[in-house]
Task: inverse folding
C-alpha cells in the first residue's frame, strides 16, 4: 500500500502562485509515476501533470503548460506542483495519485484509471 498526503493548497488572488506537495509513504517503490489531477465542482476529474520517479519524464495537460511545473524529490518521496499565473478557472480540489505501471506513451498517464493510489486532495481557490 502507498499513502499519499497533499498539502499547500489555499486561497490566492488571480495571477498568484502556489506550490502543492504530495508526500508518499509505504511501498513507494511499487509506484512508477506520480500524477496530479484536479476536480472542480460539477466537473469530471481532469489530468494536470505527471512525472516518473526514475527518469523524471514529465507530462502536462495543454491547459497548464507553461505555468505549472511538476517535479519530484526521490530522497523525500515527495512530488511537487508549482503553479504560477493562477486564474479562477484553476480553482479545484487537487489530487495526487500514484501509478503502478510504466507508460509507453504520455497518454497513459492522463487517464484516471491508470492510477491506483490517491490522496485526499487539497483545495485551491483562485479569486478574481
Result:
Amino acid at each position: 500500500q502507498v499513502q499519499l498526503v497533499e498539502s499547500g493548497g489555499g486561497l490566492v488572488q488571480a495571477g498568484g502562485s502556489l506550490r502543492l506537495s504530495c508526500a508518499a509513504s509505504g511501498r513507494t517503490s511499487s509506484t512508477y509515476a506520480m500524477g496530479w489531477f484536479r476536480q472542480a465542482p460539477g466537473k469530471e476529474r481532469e489530468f494536470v501533470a505527471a512525472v516518473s520517479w526514475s527518469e523524471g519524464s514529465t507530462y502536462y495537460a495543454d491547459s497548464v503548460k507553461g505555468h505549472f511545473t511538476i517535479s519530484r524529490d526521490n530522497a523525500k518521496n515527495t512530488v511537487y506542483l508549482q503553479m504560477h499565473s493562477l486564474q479562477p478557472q484553476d480553482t479545484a480540489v487537487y489530487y495526487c495519485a500514484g501509478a503502478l505501471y510504466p507508460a509507453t506513451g504520455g497518454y497513459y498517464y492522463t487517464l484516471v484509471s491508470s492510477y491506483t493510489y490517491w490522496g485526499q486532495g487539497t483545495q485551491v481557490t483562485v479569486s478574481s
About this structure: The chain has a mean pLDDT of 95. The two ends are 40 Å apart (CA to CA).
